């Protein structure tokens, strides 16, 4: 063969070999890491949202130092305080009055002074009471003023204070050292008590009349998921005395029978007059109540990631996402809240906040039948859980810490207690496929921003979400999970729930959640409008013999507070919206519609003395400031009002608009046309066997939507960069025509997943 030909063949062979090697190496090479780009929208807040910001650890420290040095009374750290001591129960930000804030934000006025609200328990005084002080200005306090009478119309009696963590410790010590030893044979032989194997769960409220401080404690096996391991023993403790040595047992319940005290129970047991129902001892992991998976790990579940990094920004307490901008915070009592919510530069709402979560239980055991938990009294924000990356929120979400001071003089930091993430909801926000006349496809992925916290208050876990959609809609939603509360199954227990294990009755209960929604639609001056439909009977104009039933629009301006209030279970107009004084291009008042998702159970009968303490949930309207489950019901009017962030509540008297709103499921205040909606959503829960080991979120979700209603001239999401449109005549595989076609290239990168960490078991 000719040498030249041989050389050419060798060169071709080498080139082919090199090309194959390159292909193989390229095919086997891992994708490069995703490159983050800054969000398309700029955060121009310039620190204005800090007017709503929660207090920093340093600010909390300065307030405590100031109070210690300027009140002129001895203060004991709340983590060690006896009922007869003075202590600082909590310190939180005092959000300035709305008028002050708006002058600052909108009119170039001075920044309002930064202040704190301090709640103090004064037990070491001739007239023990609860007092609230506003302290400021921060960061260097120089004044304090007592706002108790201004907020509540008088002094707050000391018996209305919520139980601090230290009081629960003292009550636990009382049970262990004084109560259980009074029935040694019963406790040893029936309960198999060894000093550690029983757990007590508090009922609430603490009594049946004003001045009471009596609490039922329900006993469970001290194992994982103890809430569903009742042992049949319940103890009513009178801890109204400020002297712990004078606390006494008022009643004892065991397996359907009541006893005067533990001594009487012991005597009856020794004499063989107690019907004993021994409960099989559960292992430490709880057995059936254990949440440990019953199956080995499988293939990883689907993950979402951001090929070019987050498309939102979080700076301090301010979030920017596409056309949305808002400030956020966490009340130690009531939980997650939003301020100055804007879409496309216009304020939609001044404040949207959780106010209260109520659960009313039924049972044939005393602890269960008397329980009406108002979780604000325990602290929805205080019990915000550290979030688990990849389960509680998407793995790549932004996680934020929360600082609070409650039940101690030292502030605490709850790591990763908030998360922010954009979520592809897996369905189109809108779409149309046209196969008539013109041929085209148009659509928009439903990608929304979520702000989330999860509060674990005792047995229940509440997933609190605020969700921001690209069409200008905003959703407030809560999902319930965690363990169901239970009673010991005996007698006619099945009238009050389902049997879920051998001795466990899953007790029927309701959930009611109250929100404050202060909308400012096109400004502060709004009206409340209701629209619905009615069928109109008419003759067809083209054929008078033909009758047509056609739906027509009905409309009514709800211009009095009574008209704007709707009772629970009452038929409500299907369209209710806040209307601005301005109009859109088509001559309609610009508005935002309120759409409620709720399947609430019945409310406590209004004839009940207990009902006055929770009257907002008839309902669910409240004055928007929470309350405390420790509150005994049936207070004389004016003794304490339901108001203020630490509302000492019970009467349900509304401070802001004369109380009209207490009896209703939806209502709006129209004073000075600055409308506020108080929304209650809820559901009835009848626990069943699938609630073991614990309750799932599916089907246990309620809340509300705020939707633009003639607010814009057309759907604002049409301006989203995520839109997709192509016709039959276009090359829909070209990136410049269809951005989805670019995904195989644009999204072929490795997400930057941080290592898994969790701080939830530190400093509990």
UniProtKB/TrEMBL annotation:
Copper amine oxidase N2-terminal domain sequence ranges: 75-143
Gene3D superfamilies to which the protein is assigned, alphabetical: 3.10.450.40, Copper amine oxidase, catalytic domain (2.70.98.20)
Note describing how the cofactor binds: Contains 1 topaquinone per subunit.
Post-translational note: Topaquinone (TPQ) is generated by copper-dependent autoxidation of a specific tyrosyl residue.
GO BP terms in the entry: amine metabolic process
Pfam families: Cu_amine_oxid, Cu_amine_oxidN2, Cu_amine_oxidN3
Keywords: Copper, Metal-binding, Oxidoreductase, Signal, TPQ
First-level EC class: oxidoreductase
Residue stretches making up the Copper amine oxidase catalytic domain: 304-718
The keyword Heme is assigned to this record: no
Cofactors required: Cu cation
Residue numbers bearing the 2',4',5'-topaquinone modification: 460
Keyword Metal-binding: yes
EC number: 1.4.3.-
Chain positions covered by the region annotation Disordered: 625-646
N-terminal signal peptide: 1-19
Start and end residues of each Copper amine oxidase N3-terminal domain: 162-256
GO molecular function: copper ion binding; primary methylamine oxidase activity; quinone binding
Active site (record annotation): 375 (proton acceptor), 460 (schiff-base intermediate with substrate)
Gene Ontology, cellular component aspect: plasma membrane
Entry similarity comment: Belongs to the copper/topaquinone oxidase family.
Name of the protein in question: Amine oxidase
Taxonomic path: Eukaryota, Metazoa, Chordata, Craniata, Vertebrata
Name of the gene: Aoc3_0
């Amino acid at each position: 063969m000719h040498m030249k030909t041989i050389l050419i063949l060798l060169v071709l062979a080498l080139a082919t070999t090199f090309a194959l090697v390159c292909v193989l190496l390229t095919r086997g090479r891992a994708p490069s890491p995703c490159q983050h780009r800054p969000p398309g929208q700029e955060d121009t807040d310039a620190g204005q949202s800090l007017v709503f910001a929660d207090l920093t650890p340093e600010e909390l420290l300065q307030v405590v130092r100031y109070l210690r040095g300027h009140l002129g009374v001895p203060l004991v750290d709340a983590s060690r305080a006896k009922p007869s001591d003075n202590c600082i129960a909590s310190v939180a930000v005092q959000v300035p009055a709305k008028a002050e804030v708006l002058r600052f934000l909108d009119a170039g006025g001075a920044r309002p002074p930064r202040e704190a609200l301090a709640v103090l328990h004064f037990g070491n005084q001739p007239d023990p009471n609860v007092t609230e002080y506003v302290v400021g200005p921060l960061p260097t306090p120089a004044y304090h003023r007592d706002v108790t009478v201004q907020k509540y119309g008088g002094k707050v009696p000391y018996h209305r204070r919520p139980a601090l963590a230290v009081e629960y410790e003292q009550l636990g010590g009382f049970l262990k050292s004084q109560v259980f030893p009074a029935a040694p044979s019963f406790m040893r032989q029936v309960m198999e008590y060894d000093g550690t194997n029983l757990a007590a769960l508090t009922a609430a409220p603490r009594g049946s009349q004003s001045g009471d401080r009596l609490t039922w404690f329900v006993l469970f096996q001290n194992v994982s998921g103890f809430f569903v391991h009742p042992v049949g023993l319940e103890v009513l403790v009178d801890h109204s005395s400020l002297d712990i040595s004078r606390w006494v047992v008022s009643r004892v319940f065991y397996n359907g029978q009541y006893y005067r005290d533990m001594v009487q129970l012991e005597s009856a047991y020794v004499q063989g007059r107690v019907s004993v129902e021994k409960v099989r001892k559960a292992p430490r992991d709880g057995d059936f109540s254990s949440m440990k998976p019953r199956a080995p790990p499988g293939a990883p579940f689907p993950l979402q990631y951001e090929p070019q990094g987050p498309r939102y920004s979080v700076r301090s307490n301010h979030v920017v996402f596409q056309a949305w901008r808002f400030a956020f915070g966490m009340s130690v009592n009531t939980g997650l809240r939003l301020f100055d919510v804007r879409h496309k530069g216009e304020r939609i709402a001044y404040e949207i906040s959780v106010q209260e979560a109520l659960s009313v239980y039924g049972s044939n055991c005393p602890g269960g039948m008397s329980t009406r938990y108002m979780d604000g009294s325990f602290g929805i924000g205080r019990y915000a859980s550290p979030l688990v990356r990849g389960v509680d929120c998407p793995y790549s979400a932004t996680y934020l810490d929360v600082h609070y001071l409650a039940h101690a003089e030292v502030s605490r930091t709850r790591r990763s207690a908030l998360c922010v993430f954009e979520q592809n909801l897996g369905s189109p926000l809108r779409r149309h496929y046209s196969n008539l006349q013109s041929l085209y496809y148009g659509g928009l992925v439903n990608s929304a921003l979520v702000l989330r916290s999860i509060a674990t208050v005792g047995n229940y876990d509440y997933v609190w979400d605020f969700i921001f959609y690209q069409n200008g809609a905003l959703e407030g939603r809560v999902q319930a999970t965690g363990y169901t509360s239970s009673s010991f199954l005996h007698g006619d227990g099945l009238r009050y729930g389902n049997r879920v294990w051998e001795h466990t009755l899953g007790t029927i209960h309701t959930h009611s959640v109250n929100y404050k929604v202060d909308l400012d639609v096109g400004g502060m001056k709004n009206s409340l409008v209701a629209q619905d439909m009615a069928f109109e009977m008419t003759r067809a104009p083209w054929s008078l013999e033909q009758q047509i039933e056609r739906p027509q629009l009905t409309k009514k301006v709800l211009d009095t507070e009574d008209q704007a209030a709707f009772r629970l279970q009452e038929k409500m107009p299907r369209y209710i919206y806040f209307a601005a004084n301005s109009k859109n291009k088509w001559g309609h008042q610009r508005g935002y519609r309120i759409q409620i998702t709720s399947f609430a159970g019945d409310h406590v009968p209004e004839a009940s003395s207990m009902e006055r303490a929770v009257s907002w949930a008839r309902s669910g309207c409240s004055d928007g400031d929470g309350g405390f489950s420790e509150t005994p019901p049936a207070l004389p009017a004016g003794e304490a009002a339901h108001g203020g962030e630490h509302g000492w509540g019970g009467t349900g008297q509304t401070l802001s608009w004369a109380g009209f709103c207490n009896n209703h499921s939806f209502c709006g205040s129209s004073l000075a046309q600055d409308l506020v909606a108080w929304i209650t959503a809820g559901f009835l829960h009848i626990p069943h066997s699938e609630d073991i080991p614990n309750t799932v979120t599916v089907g246990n979700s309620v809340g509300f939507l705020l939707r633009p209603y003639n607010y814009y001239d057309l759907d604002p999401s049409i301006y989203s960069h995520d839109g997709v449109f192509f016709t039959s005549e276009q090359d829909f595989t070209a990136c410049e025509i269809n951005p989805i076609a670019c995904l195989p290239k644009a999204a072929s990168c490795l997400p930057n997943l941080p290592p898994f960490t969790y701080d939830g078991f530190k400093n509990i």
